[in-house]
Each structure stands twice: as structure tokens, then as C-alpha cells.
Amino acid sequence: MQAPSVGGVMLPRGNGETVRLSRGASLTDFAEKINANPASLVAVMMNLGEMVTATQSVSDETLQLLGDEMNYTVQIVSPEEEDRELLESFDIEFGEDEGGEELLVSRPPVVTVMGHVDHGKTRLLDAIRKTNVVAGEAGGITQHIGAYQVTTEVNDEERRITFIDTPGHEAFTAMRARGAKSTDIAILVVAANDGVMPQTIEALNHAKAADVPIVVAVNKIDVEGADPTKVRGQLTEYGLVAEEYGGDTMFVDISAKQGLHIDSLLEAVILTADASLDLRANPDQDAQGIAIESHLDKGRGAVSTVLVQRGTLRIGDTMVVGDAYGRVRAMLDDKGNNVEEAAPSTPVLVLGLTNVPGAGDNFLVVDEDRTARQIAEKRAARERNAAFAKRTRRVSLEDLDKVLKEGEIQQLNLIIKGDASGSVEALESSLLQLDVGEEVDIRVLHRGVGAVTESDIDLAMGSDAIVIGFNVRAAGRATQMAEREGVDVRYYSVIYQAIEEIEAALKGMLKPEFEEVELGTAEVREIFRSSKLGNIAGVLIRSGEVKRNTKARLLRDGKVVAENLTITGLRRFKDDVTEIREGFEGGINLGNFNDIKIDDVIATYEMREKPRG
Ligand code: GDP
């Protein structure tokens, strides 16, 4: 069999062999893997009815489709898998403790505090930290490094707990988006005077998705109208049943403001960890873990708070964190003390990195500086490539309609950040009231007060959302991250303007609606038989005009006898013409369709796109 070709370009054809491609790969990437000319893949896509340029990043589905067409088995490789393979090429395994069971030693649980805005997450994290300042320790001045560790006594035993101190479920989302599991237990804060709110549910779902046990802190019990029982009832509907009702979730009533029952909450965390988790790690190996928070410090250069997950991190170690690397020059704990080493579940601020890693990036200690540099450089190169590819892929308001036509999204996902909860709510409700037809949904995935953060961008990346900042700006590295990841972030200071722009984009985004427009009718007067063309109808155009290549239906005694025909040939006397107007005679050929009788009526029409109101 001859290889098929289009326009002289030979089309590549496989034998079902597997081709591994990174998510967001282009036709050029694909061509490289199978040793083909990128132009030939463009031709294949064209054959499939899609115009794609060789360097444009395409969807998973398109890669699969292309593979099927050329008889290759396409395997899409996620960024996490790619990273694992990169590390494997250096003979490094990330995420597993080295050695057997006997080397594992118990470690403190790592806790994230989540819940609806204003329910008291920040206040609770402060309260926990304060109750735990050990007298005499470095003057008791705590440093905000993004995580801290406290001790609590449970059954006469001193136990430690590590808290991730980046309020909101931001840290949680960020790390989950990167596939890094950072949290062992989630404390879900619910204000007793407010009850279960949308972000309570969102937080709860995050925790469930990550398979993380939940301890519920029913907060603000000091406030008048507080109803802790109601909170228990409400959460039952979401599968969190309090122990006192026969379930297995611990609920603790607290007041973060007055410091009430904070100890009981810490105890509940330990008890929940003991009951449902086996928290152990090997402390005697090269350290591994994740970065929680990083920034550029004027005096100290790039600093990063990392959470050690296994092994012990020591001064002088060579480490890679995301695409940053370096030798650990100094380490500070959450109280600002210099420390020499950090064991599993310990957060420390690390000095000595070449640049600033991102939240959720993994870190690992390696034997040689050279290895660290190579891994970091490979990661940086990969990120650059991915950023380049993604720039064309993510949704922006301008290309909404294009993306929708490609069938990639049916709804517009939004993340709204604003300067005050009132304005955020006002904007959200106005947007949700936009009437743009039934085909497109607007969904607000997340709303909140404050700057647009890296975690917002993360969430937007994972769900192809557009971020709206109302009277706020981006914080930290959010702008760079959005640019790198191709996330569309829009800033407004007038609600009306925001609504207008979104509405306009949505209208463009709607699938075009077509309507049938009648073009003309022709009455069959005579039938000519042609050996080459089949039957030709000799007609008189009764109304409008008949055009070649338009759709037609055949009516007999006023009834439709054939649909979806095409005027394939049109003649005036001996000449081929493109149209014949009302009152003129001519010949019509309907392709393969030959069942034409005298007095039949041929009605022609075309589908036209209906303008949106
Ligand atoms: P977050 O948005 O969840 O971090 O909430 P915050 O910790 O910022 O708390 C929101 C507001 O509720 C602040 O004004 C706090 O002082 C207040 N608050 C937090 N916990 C309590 C509490 O237990 N009792 C009372 N009365 N107010 C509280």
C-alpha cells in the first residue's frame, strides 16, 4: 500500500508504537519524536479539519487524535511524571523513604488551617502560636516564616505539631496543584455565629480530595448568637459527623479571640493523627520536602521556608528547590534561632539559594553541587518551554470564543479578588446575573478579599479560569507567575466596566446559532437525461434566485420528498452559471439524486449565522 499524501507531502504512519509527549506539546514536538517533517503533521491536522500551526501548543485530545490518525499510541506525560523521570536519570527517587520499616521514626503531623473568609483562620494561627511561646526562648519573639511548630501535652506526653501559617487554603491549593502532598491534617474553622459558608464547603472538598482527615474548630463561641450545635448539624450533610453523634470527626468549640480551648483543639489534632495516620519518616537520609514560602530578602538574598518531609537537612547540604539550588549557608527556625539541622516535619528558613523557588516546589539534597545545578537547569529549561507553550493555550477574554468553538470549555470560570467583601459580592452577583443564553455558564470558583496571589494563579491554571482583580493588584510573584503560565488577569476599578467586558467576551464566546434562509424556488418543467450527469431538471425560477452549491430540498404536491440535496450543477442554455434569477429558465443538476418529476419544486436555502442581540 502506498503511503497517503496530501499536496505532495508524504504523511507519516506508525505501527502503533508509543510516543510520549509532554502536556501542551506542539506538532513540532510530535514530529521530532517520530522523525517526521512538522509540515506533514500540519497537513494531517488539516485533513482532520483543524488548522494548527506547527509550533502551537495543542490539547491532549488533539495529540491523541493525531496519534490515532497516524497509527501511533500517544501517551501524555504530566509535569510531575516528567520531573520524576528527570530525577530518576540522576538515580534519585523523590517522595519515598529510603530503606525499610525499621528505619522509620514517628514525626509530628503537619496541619493546614482552612475555612471561610473572616471565620478566624488568621486569629487562630496567632492564638496557637502565642499559647506556645516557651518562656526564655530567644525572648519569645516569633518570626513569620510561613510555618511554625508548637508543642502540646497529650496523655502526659510532649507532642509536637507543625502548622502551615499561610492563612486560607491557599498553601493547600498551591501544593495540591503541583501534586505535592504537604498536609497531614486539616483544621476546618467554622464561625459558630455564621455557620457553614461557601468557602467552608470548598475547603472541605479540597481536604477530601487530598484524602486528608479533618478536625473541625467551631470558632467564635464567645459571640452572641453563636450556635455550635447548628454547625455540627450543617456539616453532617457534608459527611462530617461529630464523634458525639456517632461519627468519627472531632469537633472542638473554641474562641480564637479569647484563647478558649486551644489546647483541646491541639489534642484533637494529635488524637486524630494517632487514630487515622501512620506518620513516620526516615530521619537518616538526604533531606527531601517542599518549599512553603520564598522571597528575595534585601540583605540575605533568596530565602525559602522549606518543610522537611524525610531525612535531616543540615547546614552545608547541597540542595535543589524547584529550579533554584545552592548550599545551605544558614537555617533559621520559626523563632528566629539559628539551627544546625532540621528533622522531618520541621519548617526552616533556608539561606543560600541561587534564586527564589515557588510555593509547593519540591526540594531535595544531593551529593554534588554539579548534580544540583544540572537538575535545576533542566527544570528551568522545561519551565521555559512549558511557559512558551502555555502562553498560547490558556484562556483569555480575547480568545474565549475560539477556545469554545474548539469545544474545550463550556463555561467561563472566574476567580474574583477585591478590596472589600462588599465589592466582591456585588461584582460576583452582577456577573452571575448576566444573561448570555443557556449554552455558557459563568462559575465563580473562588472569591476573596485581598491581592491576587500566587495561589489564585495556581487555581486559575488548574481550571482555565480568568482572574479578576477589583481595586486590588497582584502580590508577590503572582504577576510573573501569571505571565509565565499564560493566565489572564484583569484589573478593574469600576464594577460596571468589569461587567461590560465580561458580557462582551461571553457573547463572542457563545456558539454561533444558525438559521435557515430561503434563497429561491424553481419549478420543474422538463426532465433531461444525461448519461454523464444523470437527470437534469429544466426549470423556471419562481422566486428569489437559485445559486450553485447551495442546499436544496425537493417538494412534490407541497410535501418534502427529499432533504439535504445540493445544487451541484446550474446551466443557462449551454453555459455553466453560478446563479439564475426569478423569471428565468435554466437547468439544475442535483448530484446523485435523480428522482425528479415534472411539477416538482426545488427550494434552495442556506444556513446563516444569526447575530446575537
Ligand atoms: P480569616 O479571614 O479566616 O483569617 O479571619 P480572621 O482571623 O482575620 O478573623 C476575622 C475577624 O473575626 C477578625 O476581626 C477577628 O478578630 C475576629 N475573630 C476571630 N476569631 C474570633 C473569636 O473567636 N471571637 C470573636 N469574637 N471574634 C473573632
TrEMBL record:
Annotated protein name in UniProt: Translation initiation factor IF-2
Domain of life assignment: Bacteria
HAMAP family: IF_2_B
Family named by the database record: Belongs to the TRAFAC class translation factor GTPase superfamily. Classic translation factor GTPase family. IF-2 subfamily.
UniProt binding sites for GTP: 115-122, 165-169, 219-222
Stored SUPFAM superfamilies: Initiation factor IF2/eIF5b, domain 3, P-loop containing nucleoside triphosphate hydrolases, Translation proteins
A family per Pfam: IF-2
Subcellular location: Cytoplasm
A GO term for molecular function: GTPase activity
GO cellular component, one term: cytosol
Purpose of the protein: One of the essential components for the initiation of protein synthesis. Protects formylmethionyl-tRNA from spontaneous hydrolysis and promotes its binding to the 30S ribosomal subunits. Also involved in the hydrolysis of GTP during the formation of the 70S ribosomal complex.
InterPro entries: EF-G-like_DII (IPR053905), IF2_II (IPR044145), IF2_N (IPR006847), P-loop_NTPase (IPR027417), Small_GTP-bd (IPR005225), T_Tr_GTP-bd_dom (IPR000795), TF_IF2_bacterial-like (IPR000178), TIF_IF2 (IPR015760)
UniProt keywords, alphabetically: Cytoplasm, GTP-binding, Initiation factor, Nucleotide-binding, Protein biosynthesis
Domain (Tr-type G) ranges: 106-278
Native source species: Streptomyces indicus
